[in-house]
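Sequence design from tokenized structure. All designs in this work follow the same two-part layout: the structure record, then the generated sequence. An example of the structure record is given first.
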């Protein structure tokens, strides 16, 4: 069975004025299956090539929050208790911060968890 999904890439832009960024994660949401996931990976060498002074530990911690909020539950704070759709929209909301999701794209697949991993490996890894 085919399922539609929405996804966005999590970008790290250490110097907002320069606008240079690296992809550090993928958020995927499938409404019909109530499936939401965020896979993250920080390539510290690529990040250092853009801005060697960036606080890598803080960025790693913030990326972990994206994954925790996607998973949901009390350990991810009040936002983690929201329904899947609301958590997805919160995660992809436009921000002027170092970590932010890019534009939302859509697609159709038979296996959203596998599709999330494919997107992650193609766009981040």
């Amino acid at each position: 069975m085919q399922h539609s999904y929405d996804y966005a890439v999590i970008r790290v832009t250490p110097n907002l004025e320069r606008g240079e960024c690296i992809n550090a994660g993928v958020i995927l949401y499938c409404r019909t299956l109530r499936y939401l996931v965020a896979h993250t990976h920080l390539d510290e060498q690529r990040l250092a090539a853009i801005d060697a002074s960036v606080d890598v530990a803080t960025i790693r911690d913030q990326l972990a929050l994206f994954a925790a909020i996607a998973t949901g539950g009390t350990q991810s704070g009040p936002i983690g208790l929201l329904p899947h759709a609301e958590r997805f929209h919160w995660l992809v909301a436009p921000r002027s911060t170092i970590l932010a999701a890019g534009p939302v794209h859509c697609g159709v697949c038979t296996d959203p968890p596998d599709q999330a991993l494919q997107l992650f490996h193609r766009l981040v890894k």
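The helical segments are 44-50, 56-71, 84-92, 112-123. We note this feature because it recurs in several other targets discussed in the main text.
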